[in-house]
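*** Backbone structure tokens ***
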Amino acid sequence: MPTPPRSPAPRRRPRPARPARPARPPGPPARRGKPRWAVRVVTGLSVVVLASAGIGHAVLSGLDSDIARVDAFKDMKNRPRGGHGMNVLLVGTDGRDRISRAERDRYRLGGAPCHCTDTMMMVHISADRERASVISLPRDSFAVTPAHTDRTTGKRHGGHPLKLNAAYAEGGPQLTVRTVESMTRVKIDHYLEVDFTSFMRTVDVLGGVEICTAQPLKDRYTGLDLPAGTHELKGGQALQYVRSRHLDGASDLSRMKRQQRFMAALIDRATSSGILLNPMKFRDVTRAVLGSVRADRGFGTQELLALGRAMRTFSPSSSEFTTVPIAKMGHAVKGVGSTLKWDAAASERLFAAVREDRPLAAGRPPRGTPAEPVPVDPRQIRVQVENGTATAGLGRRVDRALRGLGFRTTGMPSNAAALSAERTVVVHDPRWDRSAKSLAAALPGSELRPVKGRGATLKVIAGADFTGVRRVRPQEPEQRNGTVVRGDEVVCGKP
């Protein structure tokens, strides 16, 4: 019996055409067997990180209105040339009139406000946002002001000697910035003025700051009374700690060291508590600070967000602290009194490092890591880096590594004529052979190649053998005055 013919299959509706997917860039083959939950977690974290900038902007919007503005740079002329990174002049003012009577009595803040600067620091944030350098400027430093009009007397001055903190009383933030720029030849990008109130609020919103002391600290003027050991300081007690000047004979210089130690601990608390990663916490801290500060017109929400994003991976080891080197204590000036006179040569080296975006403690190794002594300080050696290989980015990596050791790299690495260098080479003028040996010591396995007429700038041709740099230090011992310390060396748990 013949088989009956089959009915024709029903016709399917054509599916709408899908838009073509963009070509996937080539990459390494995916690993097999990765759990789906891990993929989801990684994806979720990526979304959070990518969205955090937008979230941060949302929660911080409107904070500009909380900031009291000051025109610290109005009509300023003949300013120093700007460098890499960002320089902030951080000024601590009195502001005791904004604190309640009960708190003034408790923390010994009696008397009338002085309308002067109690603390002054220059804070340099490196261009790569991986380092913060903090330089304390003693308030009793001998200074000569630029020409200005005294805001209290209305008298015009052609420039006269005074103590650095008196510049604020005579000409406010603008004269303070002008005087600091004149003394340091560092261009100030932003001005931030913090008073007692904002300081106490900041410490409290962070939950306190941990401070360690090997010796008891007692100052009858501020009421500070800390036994030896570790202490969690809240706002008022923290203010006593950073204000105390009568604990020992070092007076203001000793106080500045405690302020630096406190800032390192503050960074440790802020970074370890995840504040920079949490937009809501970041908002609370910034509101606590901004509610009672004054800042220049260019320092606002965008700048805070940029700093917050850049410093998410910041830690105390990323910070370094020092005080301007002093040549003479008790330098008597007629009509001014006893002042501190800066060491001109040492101060110039210090601020040159700021202008050139170099670490202040150039060539100093991390704790526990030996450094090779070299005949010439890296801060005195200028270097041009060339990439001698076809490896993209090698020149930038070498330039950044040498700059991290303190060498004065140009910051603009180039490609060599031939991209086939197997070995790293240091090209130098024979007259600068000691500098060349110092540079070669920082590049293990490198070859020295003398070239007459090369001049003072040394050239590094990075080869395929480059794996990293070696820490070096000048053979000359570092003076105790003006010593630089890293933040991780002064937080609790460190000697």
In short: Confidence is low (pLDDT under 50) at residues 1-13, 18-55, 363-368.
